[in-house]
Amino acid sequence: MKKHRRGHNEGSIYQRKDGRWVAGQTLEGRKRVYYYGKTRAEVQAKLLAGLKATHDGISIAQDGRKSVEQYVLTWLKSIKPQVKPKTYTTYEGLVRLHIVPALGKVKLVKLTPEHLQRFYSERIDTGLSPQSVRHMNAVLHRALEDAVRWNNVARNVADLVTPPRVERREMKVLAPEEARRFLDTVRTERIGALYILAITTGLRQGELLALRWRDVDLEARSLRITGTLQRGEAGLAIAAPKTATSRRQVLLGTMAIEALRDHRIRQNAERLLLGPAWENNDLVFANEVGRPIEATNLLRRSFKPLLKAAGVPAIRFHDLRHSAATLLLSQGIHPKVVSEMLGHAQVGITLNLYSHVTPTMQRQAADAMDSLLGATRL
């Protein structure tokens, strides 16, 4: 091997006969670690990262034999108590199905941005959506951020990659006439009140399925969002709301109040008919024996057939929420009010999501100014 004169503060850098470059660093106890690459610049960057880690007191060799698989499985166990069941289930699935099969055998300390960039490209080539790959990047970034904090690696290589760009999907919303047809269709359905609440309040599917009667005040014409229904390892359970601002009070209109009153009468009749077989979970929207409704069953057995019966376009359940926001904004309701109803953290999120309504709002503002100042309409 032919050694080359090293630069100032580079450590030991040389090129092997096979053309690969090598950098060596001496640790405490005269233990040596080596970095490999195709170019001098590549190994120099790795060496500098190692030198910085040593300067910062990070032991880069303490887990030199630990693989990505060993680390991420340990990391999953550590974060399980910190995240919601649904989040953990998502993380575990991405790790088990994608990250471990592709990257598991790589030594954690030798994981590079090139590994991740190639991994993302391969996932796209297999037909996965850019959004799914971005979820993998988010999981890896969080895991490697903890690896840095725990002194397992010198840097978070996920900071140095570019995940695939996600094209913004065109939002589908029900027009006023379509919304009225859909509401007319669901009125007599067993859980028709669920869809009426979805369109008139913009509540999320999980919030609706977690709603309990103790959170509904029909006299005050309001309800409180205190949880969201999620599936975890133990099955369906009510978890904390999505964000702090998701925990909120929502005022109800006459249509929603009447629907909830009729629904309660119908549900009480079901309880009396079943007797001890009814499982009382205080749920506003429960299945035929009082248990939580499975979201997939709701979509397949109820929502999609109702859309077809109403003769309206096929949309996602979440598009009912988009429809509610769009209808409210198009009627001139202040974005701040709509944002609070939806439980958005900031009004800017609402304005960004529903920018397609902005032209209508601007026309209303212009007409209002003309009316105020007495301008003659053209």
Brief characterization of the structure:
The chain is of the alpha+beta class and 378 residues long. The chain has helices at residues 40-55, 68-79, 85-103, 113-125, 130-149, 176-186, 192-201, 205-210, 254-274, 295-310, 318-330, 335-342, 347-353, 358-373, and strands at 2-3, 12-15, 21-26, 32-37, 216-217, 222-225, 228-232, 235-239, 248-251. The strands form 3 sheets. It has a 4-stranded antiparallel β-sheet with strand order 1-2-3-4, covered by helices on one side. It has a 3-stranded antiparallel β-sheet with strand order 5-6-9, with no helix packed on it.
Give the low-pLDDT segments: 1-10
Mean pLDDT: 87
Largest sheet: 4 strands, antiparallel
Distance between the termini: 86 Å
**Total beta strand runs:** 9
Fold topology:
Layout: E1 2-3, E2 12-15, E3 21-26, E4 32-37, H1 40-55, H2 68-79, H3 85-103, H4 113-125, H5 130-149, H6 176-186, H7 192-201, H8 205-210, E5 216-217, E6 222-225, E7 228-232, E8 235-239, E9 248-251, H9 254-274, H10 295-310, H11 318-330, H12 335-342, H13 347-353, H14 358-373
Antiparallel strand pairs: 1-2, 2-3, 3-4, 5-6, 6-9, 7-8
Helix pairs in contact: 2-3, 3-4, 3-5, 4-5, 6-10, 7-9, 7-11, 12-13
Structure notes:
With 378 residues, this protein is α+β, with helices and mostly antiparallel strands. It folds into 3 domains: 2-55, no CATH class; 68-160, DNA polymerase, domain 1 (Orthogonal Bundle), CATH 1.10.150; 176-314, hpI Integrase, Chain A, CATH 1.10.443. It contains 14 helices and 9 strands. The strands form 3 sheets. Strands 1-2-3-4 form a 4-stranded antiparallel β-sheet, with helices on one face. A 3-stranded antiparallel β-sheet has the order 5-6-9, with no helix packed on it. It has a two-stranded antiparallel ribbon with strand order 7-8. The N and C termini lie far apart (86 Å). Residues 1-10 have low confidence and may be disordered.
